[in-house]
Design a protein that fits this description.
Length: about 250
């Protein structure tokens, strides 16, 4: 589903440390009166820097939206001063003005599948959490989730038949991530799988190739995206994605 990506002016209502490496920000304001419902798991663009030559924006997942209280929640990885988004996340304070654009499209698991496989690092954890919450109670499969610290293992509202596999990586900037090997070592279940993967570029690329070439997953049942790339800027990641030999 798509709507016009309107510009909205919001203000920080609250900021709290959700886990040792995850910050939860709640935004509010009258401009959220026409923010569409049902976009949890989609994204908004947040203006994180404004310079004389223009603005710098970054994407964050919509974790929750309360249309009655006009509150929008985003969860962000707090991983130091490694770029505009990280600096903004560390510096933003309650009552600060925040300009946003969106929302952008939600990417969901294909509910027609027989079972489900989700995987991602902490940047994908908010979107994966939303996807888990909307699965049917009898859903089965796996969620492979990479965290920096055991304290980052948040409580998830996942179906009982879906196994959550936590893997630790105390240095996400060091390749390779353990996600790819962990996924490839899972017992592949019978029936049609629906896969959902997001996170670091090389990890996502590796799993996209695995699903496409070894597991023969049709594109209608496969979502793979990259949110960031080790050693590169957001702009550089987009160039690498565009220049990849296989279309994303």
């Amino acid at each position: 589903m798509r709507v016009a990506r309107e510009a909205r002016n919001t203000r920080v209502i609250s900021k709290k440390l959700l886990t040792p490496n995850m910050v939860r920000l709640t935004l509010g304001g009258d401009d959220l009166e026409n923010f569409p419902e049902g976009y949890e798991g989609g994204y908004i663009k947040v203006v994180v820097e404004s310079t004389g030559t223009g603005i710098v924006s970054r994407s964050f997942t919509v974790r929750e939206f309360d249309p009655e209280q006009l509150c929008l929640v985003i969860d962000m990885v707090a991983h130091g001063d490694h770029g505009p988004a990280s600096r903004w996340a560390g510096q933003v304070r309650v009552n600060d003005e925040v300009n946003i654009l969106g929302p952008g499209a939600c990417k969901r698991l294909n509910q027609e599948a027989d079972w489900f496989l989700l995987a991602g690092d902490m940047t994908a954890l908010p979107a994966i959490s939303v996807n888990l919450e909307i699965l049917p109670e009898n859903a089965r499969g796996y969620a492979v989730l990479e965290v920096i610290d055991p304290g980052d293992q948040i409580e998830l509202n996942a179906p009982k038949g879906l196994e959550v596999v936590w893997v630790r990586n105390d240095d996400p900037l060091r390749a390779p991530s353990p996600i790819s090997d962990t996924v490839k070592n899972l017992v592949w279940l019978e029936g049609q799988a629906s896969t959902w993967v997001a996170g670091e570029f090389d990890t996502s690329r590796s799993l996209r190739q695995y699903f496409r070439h070894e597991r023969k997953i049709h594109r209608d049942f496969m979502y793979v995206s990259c949110y960031w790339k080790i050693g590169d800027t957001d702009e550089g990641m987009k160039v690498a994605k565009k220049n990849d030999s296989e279309a994303w």
